[in-house]
Amino acid sequence: MQNNSNIPKHVAFILDGNGRWAKARGLNRTAGHRKGADRVKEIIRGAGSLGIEIVTFFAFSTENWSRPKTEVNVLMRYLDSFLSKEIKHLQENNVRFLSIGRTYPVPKYLQARIKKTEEETASNTGLLVVLALNYGGRQEIVDAAKKFGKDVLAGKINPENLDEEKFRGYFYAASIPDPDLLIRTSNQMRISNFLLWQLSYSEFYFSHKYWPDFGMDELKDAIKEYQRRERRFGGINVN
């Protein structure tokens, strides 16, 4: 990738197609999740070299609990194993880790692993890796509204003074800037309750490839497409 200008600082990913990738190969769905985890590692290892500062992965939504219990259990175990094995790489490469989403009903062992990984990488200043786990965009807005309501009842804030920036302060990770680019794989053209507030002015890129086939070359293609676009944020080009 030769054009190093206009690199998206924050890229969000909807990791879609693990199960279909496995089915197309006559494999168990969990094999797709295992291969998908390898792609997450590849993106984490390569994103920083492109100039990307934040990557957010939509790993498990609040709606995904409706999947078969055995598959959900395997996913939780995979995430735990992934963090256990990746912590050394994160530390060696100055990568910070953060998770967003509701805690319950994420298994206690995984909650503990997430907390440990967040604490051990908290002082790192390089690439920020955000894991959206048990996350839903609508749920985040509802949770923010509840927190705001409590502050109003406690007399900490006048509701008349609420604006977009103040309300944003009640989100799971309020300090993280909005994604510049959203990438969804598997040729599915929807955002599925992901970062509803934060994606308001993001650029979208939909790849026909399943997530297990989406590597650094595909990410570079997505960035090239991003660089061809003009972001006006509701304004017009005066040139």
Could you describe the 3D structure shown?
This protein is an alpha/beta fold and 239 residues long. The protein has a single domain, classed as Undecaprenyl pyrophosphate synthetase (3-Layer(aba) Sandwich), CATH 3.40.1180. It contains seven helices and six strands. The chain has a six-stranded parallel sheet with strand order 3-4-2-1-5-6, with helices on both faces. Helix 3 (69-92) runs parallel beside helix 4 (108-121). The chain starts with 9 loop residues before the first strand and ends in an 11-residue tail after the last helix. The mean pLDDT is 94.
How much strand? 5-15%
Number of domains: 1
Q: Portion of residues in helices?
A: 40-55%
Count of helices? 7
What is the residue-mean pLDDT, rounded to a whole number?
94
CATH class category: Alpha Beta
Radius of gyration from CA coordinates: 18 Å
CATH architecture annotation name? 3-Layer(aba) Sandwich
Strand order of the largest sheet: 3-4-2-1-5-6
- Counting DSSP E segments of at least 2 residues, the number of strands comes to 6
Uncertain segments are none
Look up the CATH topology: Undecaprenyl pyrophosphate synthetase
**CATH fourth-tier homologous superfamily:** Decaprenyl diphosphate synthase-like
How far from one another are the termini? 27 Å
Please outline the major beta sheet. Answer: 6 strands, parallel
Name the helix and strand elements from N-terminus to C-terminus, one letter apiece: EHHEHEHEHHEEH
Shape: globular
